[in-house]
Amino acid sequence: MARLVRPVWAIRCVQSGCRTLFEVAQTEDGKQQEVVCPNCGEHYVYPIYDENQENNG
Length: 57
Prior knowledge:
By secondary structure, the protein is mainly beta. It has one helix at 51-56, and strands at 8-12, 21-25, 33-36, 43-46. The longest helix has 6 residues, at 51-56. It is globular, with a radius of gyration of 13 Å. The N and C termini lie far apart (35 Å).
């Protein structure tokens, strides 16, 4: 299994039958990435920004 060398976040899949914890690489400020749960294949856009955070910076 590949190991990420740069800083990472740990996120948990929200599917009730899965709940897998996995790592995703941190993005540059203001950028989002699409990630896929390695266990069930569910797609997420991460990090999730609140509307206030998007407008303020």
